[in-house]
Amino acid sequence: MPADTTQDADSLLSYGMKLTWDINDPQMPQEPAHFDHFREWPDGYVRFIYSSQEKKAQRHLSGWAMRNTNNHNGHILKKSCLGVVVCARACALQDGSHLQLRPAICDKARLKQQQKACPNCHSALELVPCRGHSGYPVTNFWRLDGNAIFFQAKGVHDHPRPESKSETEARRSAFKRQMASFYQPQKRSSREPEVGNPQDISGNLSSMPALEPTERLDMIADTSFSMTNQSCLSFPNSDVLGVTCDLPTFQGDVTLPFQKYSNPSIYLPRPPWSYELAGPVGTGPNPYPTLYKDPSSIADNTDWVHLNSLQYNVSSYSSYESSLDFTAKYHGWKPTHGKPGLEERVDYGQCQAVTTCPYYNPELPCRYLPRPPAGTQALQTVITTTVAYQAYQHPALKHSDSMQEVSSLASCTYASENLPVPIYPQALDPPDATMQAASPSKRAPVKLPGDCQVLRCALASPHEADPFRTDGDAWDVCLSGMGSVVGCLDRTGQPFTFESEEF
DNA sequence: CAGTGCGGGGGGC
DNA sequence: GCCCCCCGCACTG
């Protein structure tokens, strides 16, 4: 592993961010002395420098579903985010989480994917496009130069995390295994549990309607079912989590898709084969807890978007909400409240973790908000490539139940309570938030309700380009997802070890 | 079959 | 010219 510069006081500042460079520069920093750890979930306007020996960097991997985009530059590989595939009805899984599939990279495969039904409720699947970069999908750039691989990301993902590639692959492998076992019934005892056997990867679907074994298998296999448990963790710090496909473990471990630890902040609403916690440290402000839902508190949550947004946001800035009556605020929040949304506090600068919180508004999920003029093209693209995209209120919202919402939020709030961060008296102003989210380049002055330290982070780089040139900026440390938040917070005195990951 | 990278080409600004 | 996107192709696992 290349030298790591994230262990010292400047651990929050990636090596790449310490240097002044842009992916388009004629000359890149020569002979970098250090390299950054590979980040699976880069989010925000960040830059990293990986070793050319870094396998993941060599493959230009990303937790986000990034597809190749032709930038007509043979030296710089450009990729744009495809967003995340969710259930159009925002159905809730047994554990309260929601489906968040990884969009297929291949256009054809993606179309097929969207034509399939939600494995949980059989309703349509919907692709939530990413438009975190001025209305366009977040873009990632890769450039190999000498012994370094330069990475630069532009935009803040405005959607939950999809299932990571490794998870998807692991799950598919598991499904195949299941398929194989299912189609060998002759060899199995009639009394041997099948669908319900603990090893059933679909055990997570215990809430789904009873299906014939074959149907269920098909369903699962076809849709590559996954739970938001993991994806919801737009937890930046998931970068801190070594993503591993521990199939053996998965297969052997059946019980629950996630484990509950004594420490609520360590809830792992993830399939056992997905992430591998590097340690409690990495789970500090872990968003996972926000995802975890006590079955008993899970009402018929049909408000996926709400929960999701919550999860996502919580995972992104739950720290701000630690002592906030999140549930109440969230529930009571309406577009007309005229209060600044969290997204406002979150700029597109380098405080990426906070993201645009497009889902924050239960009434008007960002993705359903009018696209900015500059986004028309993107919209067209979405329409042509995204079968499910529709500029209307999320169906789930129409059926949302306040109580359910509260219930969902309650559990999330609980999670956030375990986060080591102060709050954030905030005023929400959906309209503004929307505008900003839609046109980050035309951000209006960020309102500073209360003393949000993190806001500085956002304000530090009012312009997208700035982050790249404001070398040394205390806030360009903001790493991905929660990491950034944490990073900012750290600067405010909150002790935190961001880099706990070991690859 | 899907993921990935490359490159031609169209269209908007 | 730049950016976005679509599309097809070839290669790979």
UniProtKB/TrEMBL annotation:
Signal peptide: none annotated. Residues 181-209 are annotated as: Disordered. Residues 19-174 form the GCM domain. It comes from the Eukaryota. The keyword Nucleus applies. Keywords: Developmental protein, DNA-binding, Nucleus, Transcription, Transcription regulation. InterPro entries: GCM, GCM_dom_sf, GCM_large, GCM_small, Tscrpt_reg_GCM. This is Chorion-specific transcription factor GCMb.
